[in-house]
């Protein structure tokens, strides 16, 4: 089965936001680095996706002109097969510099299974996993190679990153994705 890794929003933009926390960063970087290095060694395409804002938000840390739309400094990104930029949650709407969508790229290259990793677990990573599944791709979700941050509900309850990850696993497993550690994502 032909695979591709989709590395979503692993970018310096997030470090500029008030909710950023380094608490889970070392484990995330290690799992993600191992996944990407293994993919590169095996010739599995690595598709990097960046979240961007357009000219309507020129002061945004997600603007391509901000200097923050680049890979997190701690991650040594292997050579990527292609880079996509998206303005919405699903990476499937991302376009590369030639205007090809991620979805089109995957189809044109005969990809049958995608491996999802990146930032934020419950947002762009989860949305991309759901979209990929709905479009007929098999999905492996490398949970330890995703990163998220504490969130506070409207009622005032604080959800930890682990609680958010648990919820993402609950809603994806056996419906949209196979949840597994990054170290097992490229296994046959």
What do these coordinates show?
With 188 residues, the protein is of the alpha/beta class. It is built from 4 helices and 8 strands. Strands 3-2-1-4-5-8 form a 6-stranded parallel β-sheet, sandwiched between helices. α3 packs parallel to α4. It is globular, with a radius of gyration of 16 Å. The mean pLDDT is 96.
Shape, principal axes of CA atoms = globular
**What are the low-pLDDT stretches, counting only 5+ consecutive residues below 50?**
none
Helix content: 25-40%
Order of helices and strands: EHEEHEHEEEHE
Number of strands: 8
Biggest sheet overview: 6 strands, parallel
Q: Rg to the nearest angstrom?
A: 16 Å
Strand content: 15-25%
Helical element count? 4
Q: What would the average pLDDT be, to the nearest integer?
A: 96
Distance between the termini: 8 Å
Strands ordered across the widest β-sheet: 3-2-1-4-5-8
Q: Briefly note the structural class of the backbone.
A: alpha/beta
